[in-house]
Specification:
Layout lengths: L4 E11 L4 E6 L6 H4 L2 E4 L2 E11 L2 E6 L5 H5 L5 E5 L13 H4 L3 E4 L4 E10 L4 E6 L6 E4 L5 E5 L4 E4 L8
Parallel strand pairs: 7-12
Antiparallel strand pairs: 1-2, 1-6, 2-5, 3-4, 3-6, 4-5, 7-8, 8-9, 9-10, 11-12
């Protein structure tokens, strides 16, 4: 089931004494915060007054947070937004939140495990599968391996290359 809210990043620190917060973004689009007017932390809506990118983090000033003491309370909290705020993804791309928990199986029906995380390597993503009482299985997200992603059906179909799992 698709989640209503998607994680956008984490408040990693405060910035200055006027209530700005430093957010480590978890998204691929470095300009995403420029397009937002608000976000949520612990279900509370925060209106963005101003923001800027600084050393791979987003420095954000929000309505209602006016000093460092208030900003400190947001440290280590997860920043979320409503799924609808992001619009449609290009074909063949997925939100990590939608992939987590999907069952991964081979074309002949063998279940390999469930996706527990997605590793971003730069060249291609890697699905990390949880296999109870065994080492995790790493599946490269490349056309030769991943044949189908069915979010609504709850599964991913793969064709294993020789030597990928031993």
């Amino acid at each position: 089931m698709k989640q209503q809210y998607l994680e956008l990043g984490k408040v990693v620190n405060t910035h200055g004494i006027r209530g700005e917060i430093k957010i480590q973004p978890w998204c691929d689009d470095p300009n995403l915060f420029d397009q937002l007017s608000y976000f949520y932390i612990d279900g509370v809506r925060y209106e963005i007054k101003k923001n800027r990118l600084h050393k791979n983090c987003e420095i954000v000033l929000v309505e209602g947070i006016t000093n460092i003491n208030q900003a400190e309370l947001l440290k280590n909290k997860i920043v979320t937004i409503e799924r609808e705020m992001l619009g449609a993804l290009p074909e063949g791309t997925y939100y990590i939140a939608d992939l987590i928990g999907l069952s991964v199986r081979t074309k002949d029906g063998q279940t390999l495990g469930n996706i527990v995380d997605v590793l971003k390597t730069g060249s291609n993503d890697v699905y990390i599968l949880d296999k109870p009482k065994e080492k995790p299985i790493l599946i490269p997200v490349i056309d030769q391996v991943v044949k189908e992603v069915n979010i609504d059906g709850g599964f991913v179909t793969v064709e294993l290359m020789e030597g990928l799992i031993d």
